[in-house]
Design a protein that fits this description.
It is a single chain. The protein is mostly beta strands and 272 residues long. It has one domain. Helices cover 10% and strands 26% of the residues. It has helices spanning 9-19, 25-36, 164-167, and strands spanning 58-63, 68-73, 110-112, 118-120, 123-128, 133-138, 146-148, 153-154, 158-159, 162-163, 176-177, 184-185, 199-203, 208-210, 229-232, 241-245, 250-253, 257-261, 268-270.
Amino acid sequence: MKNHPIKLTSIFLVSTMLFMNCASNDIAEVVEEEEVNESEVITGELHAAFAAFDTEETDIYLINGGADVTIETTGLPNHETFYWGSNHELYRAESGSFAGTPSTINPNGTYTDMRGEARTYDDSFTVATNPTLANNTTSTSMGLIGIAVSGAAIYNDQEGSGSLDEAAATLDWTGGHIGPDVYHYHLEPHAITNDDEDLVGILKDGFFIYGRKCNSTGGYPTDLDSSGGHSSTTQHTTSSEYHYHIINEMYSTTSAGDVGYILFAGPYKGSL
């Protein structure tokens, strides 16, 4: 995952010119033109919020001259959970039923899906370095909708095998489970944020999502839109920018009682 495409064309071109100093003017002209047209020279900077991401589990880098940023993840959470299995150093015993748990996290980052096919936990997406609000919202879908600072996936408020109510008993202490593929969060991940302003991660439309409190006021924001977003300063900015918060509305379920707060139900406000 760490071998992202850093462009080394300029180094290559210098070496080529040194070893081909007897080449024709035509070749020299081609080299000069390629240098001028180099489109992957990075001139921008990563957003300061990316410093909060675990560098062992995620790899984040600019592409397209700094216009876009790619976020790659191993998909492996960096914290304790029941789903690591009792032989792992990050295993955490819990009293929940965890009925129907299909498997534990494989530290090698691989698993076998319901069809018996080998799969990997790693995932990635690319977003604009400076995301903008779209004219129309977009509903979230099943599967990964974002990447958390821990390296684990963020999912919405639905469960592939049925409603989240039915799967609530399998959620661990930090609102995550495997169910049935990669480990992912549905609820406020207490291993990352717990009734505070901490950064949770980034969603696929390029906007960051924070805990239930807002750094600009120190309290629960009162101006959130239907997606849990608003514009204000954060601990990572000196100017106002749009971002999401976990909405401070308790999620309750008939199968396990009050178990936390939905992490993100959508819709996305940014462009996908």
